[in-house]
Design a protein that fits this description.
The structure holds two protein chains of two kinds. Chain A is mostly helical. In chain A, 77% of the residues lie in helices and 0% in strands. By secondary structure, chain B is an alpha/beta fold. In chain B, 32% of the residues lie in helices and 25% in strands. Chain B has helices at residues 46-53, 94-106, 115-124, 126-131, 147-160, 177-194, 205-211, 250-259, and strands at 6-17, 20-31, 35-40, 61-66, 69-70, 79-82, 165-169, 197-201, 214-220, 233-240. Chain B has a six-stranded mixed sheet, sandwiched between helices. In chain B, α6 (177-194) links the parallel β7 and β8 (197-201). Chain B is globular and about 65 Å long. Chain B starts with 5 loop residues before the first strand and ends in a 10-residue tail after the last helix. The chains are: A mainly alpha, B alpha/beta.
């Protein structure tokens, strides 16, 4: 049989998926052992045990100076910023994006502007944000918005425009007004692909979050890893990176789950990643 | 219905896309209660004609009258449509698709019914579900249905609005022959019950003869061998299938429908 037609069973898929992870871990442990055998105080590739100790210290022991459990405080602060930024961007997509896609006059007015705006490299806006809104929470959230809103608006407008014209005409012949069409046809047909876009936009959102926190912040996951970098504390940085990755993965899966629950019709055919 | 006023009047209508002439000086009157079946080669403008009757497109020249008044500038509920595809809402189940008609009618802001009103509306569509044989599939989404079931749903949904004019754009084109003739029976029954005017574009000549009370054949009168888009199509045969049940013209029509296909390639259907 051709290789494109050979599909792994469920269990085989799980084993296959595990292989690269196991290999990566093994490679790390091997390299770490080699270095530590030569120099037990080496900081570059800490042993899994010392990383666990560092993680345990960050997560389950109160900080000596502040009395906070740093990992959880950092996680909470970062997630609040991330979700606030994504919430604003999503709102912009659902309003501006949908209107651009559905109403030709709004499209003519706003589409070129949004297209131009989306080409500004978001990080270049960061100093402007710092000057205008200060170094507080607002500038970090604003950076995430600047970085993700234009993509979300554009992809939402595009998905509204790809609703088959026949469907919209059918709604017109059923006597629906524009508001009713937005509510019962355009939004429901667009939301599943909006969720997809949000999942993709979360990737740059994390980058902007960590960058903003690294540059000006006193808490957050990005702040922490850039803080401990000064002491070459790889035993803290690596678990934090894994933790951030895990959070990103969980968010992604939750959104997929949400989409499957809310829009079963969208997931009837074909596999989705 | 026996009105002498035509329900649809087409007055000297031409349609161009840029320099491409699709329809040329088309004139006809259609009486209320007829089933006009429309056949012709691919790209002869029959779907364009239907889209003009739907107000999806406007004539470049000439005028279209419905009930003696100029046709509305956009699609309205007095003209129902069933397309070959995308005629139902893919994100709604069978019963939600039917329910939507009532919801749009009675809830201008929410476009949704709740509680007693919703239960009442669900009871009201029970008979329709029964008639189109989708009672068992009421909770399914359109993509879970067969092509025939989808089109039955599309027709039922359109008819709930009680349009005066029903437009069908190759509604059975994607269906198996057996299911097709079931759909013909369904359509005939519906037409007799509701006495509306039907325009149906089809590729299938026997379907056109079987269902129609009047058959319109779209074809080009003039033909420029160097520039196939120079002249548009118009009605070349207009048969009253009530009076003359003869199929004397059948071979000629068949050659029109089948003949130009190779030449017409690359044109907007």
């Amino acid at each position: 049989m051709r290789i494109i037609n050979r599909k792994p069973s469920r269990i085989a898929s799980m084993y296959l998926a595990a292989i690269p992870f196991v290999l990566a871990v093994l490679a790390y442990v091997y390299a770490s052992n080699r270095r530590l055998a030569e120099n037990p105080s080496d900081k570059l590739l800490p042993s899994p045990y010392s990383m666990w100790m560092a993680f345990e210290r960050m997560a389950f022991q109160p900080d000596r100076r502040t009395g906070d459990y740093l990992l959880w405080v950092d996680t909470f602060d970062s997630l609040v910023r991330l979700s606030a930024g994504m919430a604003v961007s999503t709102l912009a997509a659902v309003t501006i994006g949908v209107l651009i896609g559905f109403i030709p006059h709004v499209r003519a007015t706003l589409a070129p502007f949004i297209a131009t705006f989306s080409l500004i490299p978001p990080i270049t806006v960061l100093p402007i944000l710092f000057i205008f809104v200060g170094l507080g929470e607002a500038s970090k959230i604003a950076l995430i918005v600047v970085g993700t809103a234009p993509i979300l608006i554009r992809s939402t407008a595009q998905s509204v425009m790809s609703i088959p014209r026949e469907t919209i005409i059918k709604a017109e012949t059923l006597g629906a007004n524009v508001w009713q069409m937005l509510l019962r046809l355009v939004l429901p047909q667009t939301l599943p692909s909006l969720i997809n876009s949000i999942r993709l936009a979360l990737i740059p959102a994390w980058i902007f979050l960590i960058s903003a926190e690294a540059i000006a912040s006193t808490s957050g996951l990005g702040y922490r890893i850039f803080l401990v970098r000064r002491f070459l504390a790889m035993d803290v940085i690596l678990p934090y990176v894994i933790w951030i990755t895990l959070l990103a993965y969980i968010l992604d899966r939750l959104l997929l789950l949400l989409s499957r629950r809310m829009f079963p019709w969208f997931h009837l055919h074909g596999e989705s990643l | 219905m026996t009105s002498t006023e035509p329900i649809v009047s087409v007055r000297n209508v031409s349609k161009y896309y840029d320099d491409n002439c699709v329809l040329e000086r088309l004139s006809l009157d259609v009486e209320s209660g007829s089933i006009c079946t429309i056949v012709g080669a691919s790209g002869c403008g029959k779907s364009t004609f239907l889209r003009m009757l739907l107000s999806q497109e406007r004539p470049s020249r000439g005028s279209l009258l419905v009930d003696g008044k100029p046709i509305a500038a956009e699609p309205t509920p007095d003209r129902g449509i069933v397309f070959q595809r995308y005629s139902v809402f893919s994100h709604l189940t069978v019963e939600e698709n039917l329910l939507l008609v009532r919801e749009v009618e009675t809830a201008p802001m929410a476009a949704r019914l709740f509680g007693v009103a919703r239960r009442q509306a669900l009871e009201d569509i029970e008979e329709t579900l029964e008639k189109i044989g989708l009672t068992g599939a009421r909770k399914q989404f359109p993509s879970q249905l067969s092509g025939g079931m989808q089109q039955r749903l599309a027709i039922a949904q359109t008819l709930l609005k009680r349009p005066k004019i029903l437009l069908l754009d190759e509604p059975f084109g994607a269906l198996d022959p057996g299911i097709r003739s079931d759909m013909h029976e369904l359509l005939k029954g519906i037409w007799q019950e509701n006495l509306m005017t039907v325009f149906m574009v089809t590729h299938d000549i026997s379907e056109a003869f079987k269902l129609g009370t009047r058959l319109l054949v779209f074809d080009k009168r003039r033909y420029d061998p160097h520039d196939s888009s120079a002249y548009g199509a118009t009605v070349t045969y207009d048969l009253d299938l009530y009076k003359q049940q003869s199929t004397a013209n059948l071979p000629a029509i068949e050659s029109i429908v089948g003949g130009h296909r190779a030449v017409e390639k690359g044109k907007k259907p």
